[in-house]
Design a protein that fits this description.
Low-confidence stretches: none
Number of strands: 7
Largest sheet: 4 strands, mixed
Helix content: 10-25%
Number of helices: 3
Distance between the termini: 20 Å
Order of helices and strands: EHEHEEEEEH
Mean pLDDT: 93
Length: 128
């Protein structure tokens, strides 16, 4: 698993793709993923550029995104939006209930959660 803040995709996309493809994770949790106009397409394109697929997130999770390889089976997804503090960014979280077939052939179940907590010391504990 890998987590990465893509800074709204304003950074070097080729470098980002190289890092993710080299690490070859089964799951990537992304902060500051597309969440505005055409967000579904942009999230899917980002996942595809890494050889992965969209699992959950984007606009419903306020820019938090979960992408996976085909090895991961996603059973359920849900989202959480934190209360808005006036003058601050909207923040939230994405969740996915998943499974993978382990080396023994047994199905292993787990939950993935991705969030981007506030930078404000007073706001962050309530979000956590």
């Amino acid at each position: 698993m890998l987590t990465y803040n893509v800074h709204g995709q304003h950074d070097d996309r080729a470098a980002l793709t190289a890092v993710v493809r080299t690490a070859a994770p089964d799951i990537v949790i992304v902060q500051e993923a597309p969440r505005r106009l055409r967000w579904r397409t942009k999230c899917a394109e980002l996942a595809h550029s890494w050889g992965m697929v969209y699992a959950a997130g984007g606009l419903p999770a306020l820019g938090n995104l979960i992408v996976t390889t085909q090895r991961i089976r996603v059973h359920e997804t849900w989202y959480l939006r934190y209360p808005l503090t006036p003058g601050r960014h909207l923040r939230g979280a994405a969740f996915a209930r998943c499974s993978i077939i382990g080396a023994s052939g047994q199905e292993l179940r787990f939950v993935v959660a991705g969030t981007h907590l506030a930078t404000d010391d007073a706001e962050r504990p309530g979000q956590a």
